[in-house]
Amino acid sequence: MTDTAANPAPGALLIVQELVNTLDVEAGTDAIETPAGLRDWLRDRSLAPADLRPTDDEIARMAEFREALRGLLRANNGDPVDPEALRSLNRAGRGGLRVRFDEDGTAALVPQPEEPIAAVVGSIVAIVFTSIADGTFARLKACPARDCGWAFYDLSKNRSARWCSMAVCGSREKVRAHRARQVKTTGV
Ligand SMILES: [Zn+2]
Fold first, then answer.
1. Ligand 1 mean position to 91 CA, how many Å?
2. Where do the structural domains in the chain lie, given as residue ranges?
3. 148 CA distance to ligand 1 centroid (A)?
4. How far is the CA of 160 from the centre of ligand 1 (A)?
5. CB of 65 within 8 A of CB of 124?
6. CATH class (in words) of the domain with range 4-186
7. More confident residue, 113 or 165
8. Measured between alpha carbons, how far is 11 from 159 in angstroms, rounded to an integer?
9. What is the model's pLDDT at position 9?
10. I need a labelling partner for 143 at 20 to 30 A (CA). Which of 19, 39, 151, 168 fits?
11. pLDDT band for position 2 (50/70/90)?
12. What's the gap in Å between 21 CA and the centre of ligand 1?
């Protein structure tokens, strides 16, 4: 596991990376598992009002949404797309997004004004959509190590990075694969 800051995704896509990395499997911490944690995380990114009081149901929805995003990032790393993750994301996108055209000739997907958490989810779905279109999303990957799943932005030329950190997860996985091979050949 490496720090998000070491290989940050560009622009608004960083929010997706940071959301996925609110769960640190290795450290056993989840930054958005409490009402205050989720509120602060959203407030720090100007995604929700400072007086937001998330309910348990909303916390659960954000966690589900986060894991669905992680599923997409695993798919960016060569895993098959998890159908449950797709269902969850399609549900999330249904909250209502509209296209807003601006005077400077740009257009943006914006969530319909509604309850704050649904709007947050809608905004993040819009970021994913836009980054798929501009090609940056494919570089945002989740580490495939079973006890990791950390989101990292792949800056390699041919988009071939697999592990969040070759020094840690990559070598750990190599040891595992080596052991598994030994077990197979020796039958121990
Ligand atoms: Zn890792």
1. 28
2. 4-186
3. 5
4. 15
5. yes
6. mainly alpha
7. 165
8. 19
9. 96
10. 39
11. very low
12. 11
